[in-house]
Amino acid sequence: MCTDLRVREAQWQFVAPVPHYLALCERPGSPWEPLAVVAFDRVVGFVMKGVDPTDESFWIGGLMIAAEEQGQGYGRAAVEALVAQATAARHRSVALSYQPGNTSARALYLSAGFVETGETEDDEVVARRALR
């Protein structure tokens, strides 16, 4: 179950517990939709997707992979699956944000074709990947 997922202790400062993200998804008017990251019939992670109503960009948020499942490509696979969904829905870009000190997330996203834009979302760095 997603609410039981825990990341490595060193990552606690970068991600909220899943119930926090589920509460965001339940807010009236929220653009966020929660998704389980599943591999081999096991829940290995959590992520949210949403569309920004101001510019129609597709957003990925709250990505986390359980500590014991990290390093197996599940985070990258989740990102690529969501990029494929955004492409199929004809969005112009995919956006996400992360804490500046989260070097693991930054490395994953930059290697997946995201580019830091200079934008910020609260205290996070925004990166985007153009789709067309």
Topology of helices and strands:
Blueprint: H1 18-26, E1 33-39, E2 42-51, E3 58-65, H2 74-88, E4 93-98, H3 103-111, E5 115-121, E6 124-130
Parallel strand pairs: 3-4
Antiparallel strand pairs: 1-2, 2-3, 4-6, 5-6
Explain what the structure shows:
The protein has a domain of 91 residues: Aminopeptidase. It contains 3 helices and 6 strands; from the N terminus they run αβββαβαββ. β1 and β2 form a beta hairpin. By secondary structure, it is of the alpha+beta class.
What Rg is obtained from the alpha carbons, in whole angstroms? Answer: 14 Å
Order of helices and strands: HEEEHEHEE
CATH topology of the domain at 2-92: Aminopeptidase
User: What is the CATH H-level superfamily of the domain at 2-92?
Assistant: Gcn5-related N-acetyltransferase (GNAT)
